[in-house]
Amino acid sequence: MDSLGITLGHHGCDRKVGERILSPHQSHVEISANDYDWLGSGAYFWENDPERAQHWAEMVRDNPQHFGQKISRPFVLGAIIDLGLCLDLTSAACLDEIRAAHRDMIHFLERAGTTIPMNKPGYQGDVDLVKRHLDCATVNFLHLLRAKKGLPAYDTVRGPFTEGRPLYEGAKIMDRTHVQVCVRNPRVSIRGYFRPL
């Protein structure tokens, strides 16, 4: 997939983290390597949606038992992201690549006698199966396959996440649908940070 150019991302975090990144001693957003991160390992951003980032940070604050981090003061950090070589889940070619990686991963795990990961609910009543163990393993396996074949590494992974309840009766549009961007190496792909208005 060719470069998709620049996009704006929004990261929900604790105010201390956001202010530290915006400070003159600027650091970068940390990489998440949970085995359930649906786009694989990387730093996660809501594309063009500071409100969703704020809601997420508030959800983490209010439900710390479900998350590996604590947020006491929700904050939204904006980022200018160069998507670079992007594994874009709205592209047929990229979806075909993921399908093939999944097939290869299943074959590898079966031969090794290893349990195949499964997507699971993250909380009671979770119909979206937000703990995406299978999807995370598949995307990370795809990155390993590309490295083994000597193909260029993807800089980012971008995908729509259909989540929530129908927006209205009979709808296939869900009330929490969003687009996320997973930045695999913030030092390479993030051109700058900002404080959203």
Write a concise synopsis of the structure shown.
This protein has five helices and nine strands, in the order βαβαββαββαββαβ.
Textual characterization of the structure:
This protein is of the alpha+beta class and 197 residues long. The protein has one domain (6-194). Helices cover 32% and strands 24% of the residues. The strands form two sheets. Strands 4-7-8-2-1-3-9 form a seven-stranded mixed beta sheet. The longest helix is centred in the middle third of the chain and has 21 residues, at 92-112. The chain starts with 5 loop residues before the first strand and ends with a strand.
Topology summary:
Elements: E1 6-14, H1 15-22, E2 43-47, H2 50-62, E3 74-82, E4 86-88, H3 92-112, E5 119-120, E6 131-132, H4 133-149, E7 156-161, E8 178-183, H5 186-189, E9 190-194
Parallel strand pairs: 4-7
Antiparallel strand pairs: 1-2, 1-3, 2-8, 3-9, 5-6, 7-8
Helix pairs in contact: 3-4
What would the average pLDDT be, to the nearest integer?
Answer: 93
Measured as a percent range, the helix fraction is: 25-40%
Q: Spatial order of the strands in the main sheet?
A: 4-7-8-2-1-3-9
Uncertain residue segments: none
Give the H and E element order. Answer: EHEHEEHEEHEEHE
**Total of DSSP H or I helical runs spanning 4+ residues:** 5
Distance between the termini: 32 Å
Strand content: 15-25%
Shape type? globular
Kindly provide the radius of gyration, computed on alpha-carbon positions and rounded to a whole number of angstroms: 17 Å
Structural class, please?
A: alpha+beta
Number of beta-strand segments:
9
